[in-house]
Amino acid sequence: MSDQTNKRLELPAMITVRELAQKLNVSAINIIRKLMENGMMVTINQSIDFDTAAIVASEMGYEAIPEKVAEEEEKETGELPLWRKLIAQEDPNSLIPRPPVVTILGHVDHGKTTLLDAIRNTNVAAGEVGGITQHIGAYQVELKGRQITFLDTPGHAAFTAMRARGAQGADIVVLVVAADDGVMPQTKEAIAHARAARVPIIVALNKIDKPNANPDRVKQQLSENGLVPDEWGGNTFIVPVSAKQRQGIEDLLETILLVADNSEIRANPKGKVIGTVIEAELDKSKGPVATLLVQNGTLKVGDVVVAGLAYGRLRAMFDFRGRPVQKAGPSVPVSVMGLNDLPRAGDIFQVLASEKEARQVVLERQEAAKQQAVAQKKMTLEELFSRFKAGETKELNLILKVDVQGSLEPILNEINRIPTGEIKINVLYAETGNVSENDVMLASASRAIIVGFNVQADATARRLAETEGVSIRLYEIIYRLTEDLEKALKGMLEPEQVEKIIGRANVLAVFNISKGGKVAGCRVVQGEVRRNAKARLLRNGEVVYEGDIASLKHEKEDVREMREGFECGIGLRNFNDIQVGDVIECYLLEKMTKD
Ligand code: GDP
Questions:
Q1: How far is the CA of 214 from the centre of ligand 1 (A)?
Q2: What percentage of the chain carries pLDDT values higher than 70?
């Protein structure tokens, strides 16, 4: 009995009798009986609180502990990206400092690109190869003999993609805030991203050269957003810079190293190889080319790599200067050739023992991905149908196909920025690859248009699109794409009505009809008069009446239309003040698309 009382059982704050019975591995009747003995009447589906459940559990020989504690412990490590977990498993003695990996975030136009260029140009050791630095999505700079790795896909795209897949490539976020503009929506977004990823933030207070720069105001705003400046007793370093005039760059780099020194940025260069895909694209002559950021271990030419759904033996590796390299240690970005497919930005890569093993891993992943995709698509379709049946939604449904993963987010961001007025743009799904038959079927079912960026439409897809009346639009420039979408939206706006005059008739006589009504005896002098058209009555050039034609007769016969030169009787709806000499103008309201 005594060892039984030591059995620990995690229980939540509330638990149903049934669940508790399962956990204790006894019949629910037993539990209900125990509770009854303690004066509680419960049913099998009723929930009881932790304290009550703990009493029952203890009577069954268990010591109950609150589940929350266990859960929280798990959370701490659960959110860690794979590579961090792996490093945590390394022998602490084997870990040595590695260069910090930095990503630059901030509101649009606050100077991210300019800052990245300034850092690259001032601190990449020049003249080493005399070559052009390549844009591979990351580069390294040196300050006082120490390296810093910058991810140079500005904006949140890469960072978000990485975080979404738990990769969290960066060790430090440099948040660019323009001193003349202050904290803006994307600044806040970036702060949230960095917090969620538990990555320290350094603020680059940019554009301090501008006459209207107001650093104190920005610091105030930053404090309000939880980034209290170091000089005000907080723990956020705020470094004034001018990316344009290349001022303060070295201070910024020094601050990065300072923060890095306090952030346990370590890895085992001899350990298991793992890292993150920074970007990947299909090169016409080289095939899939991916930029990999090594985070632990040392990647070598000839290694077999699995990255997301791609794998292969590395044929060649290049550093950001385009120089071939044989190996890359922790925090070093390299552009690699040899993968059989394009991995996605943010995918984790690992080195496996053989291509056979790699193929097996990828096959399993593909299977899992397929099942997930099927489940997702079914859902989407059902959703679509129900929306359409409801019929009251005004939406422009889009299917977006792009060349590489890295294009997705910028395009989606642009699309979100389109002023849509009363119409909602609904991206059904967005993925990489050519426009396929499947996309067309979905588009047809959901009355969506397919928008492609730097992709082609398969011949079968095009044929199907023609028969199904699905529009496929392919673009190579994002701006054109969004411009066209704006136009498409206008086409969908409630059409404006334009008036089209179809005929005129002169009133020659006025007849009284039954119930006090009046009919104009007319001659059609121009075009035609139609029974179901609109009409206005003009007297001396002034409009006396606007409305509908109520009746149109020719020699006592109801007619639908009367052409020029003929005589007819015209009755106007709810209007009897007709006089000889009036002119009846007959017109249609036609729908016109806004331009
Ligand atoms: P991003 O959208 O954050 O990448 O911003 P950009 O780097 O494209 O910069 C937006 C604009 O701000 C450009 O016209 C830059 O020339 C300008 N800019 C960037 N940094 C500075 C700076 O330090 N001072 C001034 N005066 N202008 C800057």
A1: 16
A2: 84
